[in-house]
Design brief:
Blueprint: H1 8-22, H2 30-45, E1 64-67, E2 78-83, H3 89-103, E3 109-114, H4 119-122
Helix pairs in contact: 1-2
Length: about 120
């Protein structure tokens, strides 16, 4: 789980490295990890009040898949999914499950970036 940091980029970069290490996805080059961190920081920087907007994935298309996205090409090892305040959390989880379980079953890691925290949806009660 990512935590709030004073320097968002460095914090997310540190968390990404930790998550990738834990998930044993160690073959990701450092510049790709930086691209993923930059994607997360720049997307969240626009605010989370509305819907997550489809992303063009420029610069990281060969590394990850993104939900929502304008790109619908091949499968990658990692998936980053964004779910903001106006998005349906359950629908976004269904999209993630379809992507990682059916469309791209060789997905090694899913990162969900969300502004929603509902203990009932997360089954954390």
């Amino acid at each position: 789980m990512f935590k709030p940091y004073r320097d968002r980029f460095e914090g997310i970069l540190e968390d990404l490295r930790s998550v990738l290490e834990e998930a044993k996805v160690s073959e990701v080059p450092n510049e790709n990890i930086c691209s993923i961190a930059d994607l997360i920081v720049s997307t969240v920087a626009d605010g989370t009040k509305g819907h997550a907007r489809p992303l063009p994935q420029q610069g990281v298309e060969y590394t990850i898949n993104v939900i929502p996205s304008e790109v619908t090409d091949g499968c990658r090892d990692m998936l980053v999914a964004f779910c903001f305040d106006a998005d349906s959390f359950n629908e976004r989880l269904r999209e993630v499950a379809y992507h990682a379980g059916i469309h791209c079953p060789h997905t090694k890691l899913v990162i969900l970036v969300t502004s929603q925290w509902k203990p009932i949806d997360w089954n954390l009660y």
